[in-house]
Design a protein that fits this description.
alpha/beta, four-stranded mixed β-sheet, 14 helices, globular, Arc Repressor Mutant, subunit A, Double Stranded RNA Binding Domain, 3 domains
């Protein structure tokens, strides 16, 4: 009889634990939604405490536990993405900055290269003044596009149709001087050779937030033919609880293959997602294992 009561207690404790976890995720999801949809509002801990009727200490602890970063840092990441959108919509710089929730230009100009990868005026103009050359080619995984500036590869993508790749490039940099050019031939051939097992090492010129760039730098450190989990990457950058944020940074990678986000899998060994398609990820991992001797 006592054994039955113990099983009942264990079952109740398990239900309570599951309910507590669900409650934490619900709270964090609500806070994330509020921050995303109210970029100009005060999202300080005292404000969040009042709005959600939860102590600021619990909010801070729970948010960092689930997201791996503080609400303040999450708000900044959201504002950076919104700033990019505003600038690309050709809004005046002052208005674009203020509509992200900041009342000072210094926030973006003090460290604009780390936040945008270029000055706000350049990004607002859709790459105006920049020269981007590109080439496309049929390959083992459909069609490949490689685009580069004078500093390095700024875009690399795969798709089933060539037109899709070219259209996406012009949409990303609508005001840049974009041209199909044989100057990209060497870089394109390097990627094509990579599909046959050769190492890929090309300079990149990418735009990303501080957090994204930290994740991308960590991805460079994953050896050819090996994989790491999203949790491993989170630990590498000193944010062991930022697994979800790491996954988002991988999905935002503008130059896959060169920054090898395909080498990141789930902690349980499942292959996980991939912006270019699961079948392509499976091919890349199998190809690297074969050519590196990794079983």
């Amino acid at each position: 009889m006592s054994g039955v009561r113990k099983e009942q207690r264990d079952h109740l404790n398990e239900q309570e634990t599951t309910s507590a976890k669900a409650s934490k995720y619900d709270l964090v999801e609500q806070i994330c939604d509020y921050i995303r949809f109210n970029p100009s509002d005060d999202v300080s801990l005292p404000t969040l405490e009042k709005r959600f009727s939860v102590s600021r200490f619990r909010i801070q602890r729970t948010f960092k536990d689930i997201m791996g970063i503080s609400p303040r840092k999450y708000a900044e990441e959201c504002r950076i993405l919104l700033l990019k959108k505003n600038l690309k919509d050709d809004q005046p710089i002052t208005r674009a900055i203020y509509r992200t929730g900041y009342n000072s230009h210094s926030w973006v100009y003090d460290r604009s290269t780390s936040k945008l990868g270029m000055t706000p005026s350049s990004y607002r103009k859709g790459g105006e003044g920049a020269s981007i050359d590109y080439l496309t080619s049929k390959c083992k995984l459909g069609y490949l596009l490689v685009a580069e500036t004078q500093y390095g590869i700024c875009s690399l993508s795969l798709a089933d149709r060539e037109e899709t790749l070219v259209s996406s490039l012009f949409k990303e940099y609508p005001m840049a001087k974009i041209a199909r050019s044989e100057t990209v031939r060497k870089s394109l051939d390097s990627v094509l050779n990579y599909f046959d097992g050769q190492l890929l090492n090309l300079p990149v010129d990418v735009i990303g937030t501080d957090f994204q760039k930290r994740v991308w730098t960590a991805l460079f450190r994953i050896p050819y033919g090996e994989t790491r989990s999203y949790y491993d990457i989170a630990k590498m950058i000193g944010k062991p609880k930022a697994v979800r944020a790491v996954a988002n940074a991988c999905a935002s990678n503008p130059v896959p293959l060169i920054i090898p986000c395909h080498r990141v899998v789930r902690k349980d060994g499942d292959i996980g997602g991939y912006g270019l398609g699961i079948e392509r990820k499976e091919f890349l991992l199998a190809m690297e294992r074969t050519n590196s001797g990794v079983k």
